[in-house]
Amino acid sequence: MTMNRRLFLSRSAQTATALGVAAWLPNSQAAVEAMSSKHITFGSSLPLTGPLGASGKEHVMGIQAAFAAVNRAGGVHGRELRLITMDDAYVPAKSAENVKQMVAENSVMALVSQVGTPNTAALLPIIEKAGLPLVGPITGSGALRNPQLRNVFHIRPSYGEEVTRMVEQLVKMGLSNIAFVYLDNPFGKEVLAQGKAALAAAKLTASGEFALAFDGKNAAEVAQRVEDSRAGAVFLATTGAGVTDFVIALRGAMGSIPIVGLSVTYTDLPRLGKDRALGLAMASVFPSFKSKKFALIREHQADMDAMKFEAPTGSAVESWINARVLIEGVRRAGRDLNRDKLRASLAGIRGFEVGELVINFSAAAPYVGTLPVKLGVMGPDLTLRV
Question: InterPro entries recorded for this chain (predicted)?
């Protein structure tokens, strides 16, 4: 349904309860061939430590839960699916180093759920040269969606689609005095530019543009600058642990001011506590991980429960979906599998249903399985209400 201003602001007075933290999942590394008659191995370089460590671990859970469900049923064409994870701590150079190692050892058939815009960008020359498919990068950067990238398969919509939809909704709600808080990196600057363009289309300008350090060290200073700007709402072109520090500081300074983020913005909701996660709004591109009305979420949760995994945010859902798309590509490629056949089978996916979601990759690169973007508001139990 459409979110109106009254409902948005009223939900800003609600509370949220923190959930338990998932058990740490160890890195797994192996210098064995990517495929044998009995197994296929896939890889993921992602943050398991650092500011996005908690989110990275949830992404691993989602992949492992999807793989385990298939393996319990006999695998794909009789082969067990395996996963190698390597920690890059959200450092692009480390992401590139990890993937170079995987390529050199020929230890993976494809990659899944690479986290981060700069990290994914660092991999592109490597995977294109190696013909190594990457399914479901956790980034909506438009700069990573171009016709030259034949091995990248995006599941989520672009950040441009997200920010345009969110700004349009805020303007419709009468919240035109919008300040932008952005990460001082390529991701944040790209989203900031897209947000300003969306405001310009509505003949508006931002009340302020404030750069937030990724580690949140200037969170209090930025919150004060937002308050001084007399903003009526704040859009967060951010992700990572620093966002939590900023929201805590801004809630202390400006109470229930509407705060809207991207689908990747809030990575540490439990640390916000009951009184700060209330009413946070965000772009919703996947069903809320607590919305059992969706068959997708019920199936995802069954796979997670089978592994005894507990994930306090929705990150695991996205990577579970990514893994399901990768699995479908492997099935369609047949038993005589190689990277070229896998890439071709992924490129041919149309009308593939994962619960209520339907994945339709473009007919040619860039391959994007477009999904709708909606505005959601966080409820008292950390359920995103759309």
Answer: Leu-bd, Peripla_BP_I, TAT_signal
Pick left, alpha or beta for residue 345 (phi over 0 → left; psi -120 to 50 → alpha; otherwise beta): alpha
The DSSP line for 203-264 is: T---SEEEEE-TT-TTHHHHHHHHHHTT-SEEEEE--SHHHHHHHHHHHHHHTT--EEE-TT
Average pLDDT for residues 192-198, to the nearest whole number? 94
CB-based burial label for 66 (10 Å; 0-12, 13-18, 19+): buried
pTM for the predicted model, two decimal places: 0.81
In the predicted structure, residue 74 carries a pLDDT above the cut 50:
yes
CATH class of this structure's domain 39-156+292-368: alpha beta
Across residues 147-159, what is the average pLDDT?
95
- Identify the CA nearest to 157 among candidates 133, 138, 181, 171: 138
Residue 61 has pLDDT above 70, yes or no: yes
Domain boundary assignment for the chain:
5-19+159-286+374-385, 39-156+292-368
Q: How far is CA 309 from CA 41, 103, 301, in A?
A: 21, 30, 9
What is the pLDDT averaged over residues 195-201?
Answer: 94
Cα separation, 100 vs 102, whole angstroms: 5
Q: Are 257 and 278 within 8 A, CB to CB? A: no
Q: Helix 117-130 crosses helix 92-105 at what angle (to 10 degrees)?
A: 20
pLDDT in tens, 112-134: 999 998 999 999 999 999 999 99
Cβ neighbours around 182 below 10 Å, total = 22
CB atoms within 10 A of CB 174: 11
What pLDDT score does 201 carry? Answer: 93
Whether the pLDDT of residue 4 is over 60: the answer is no
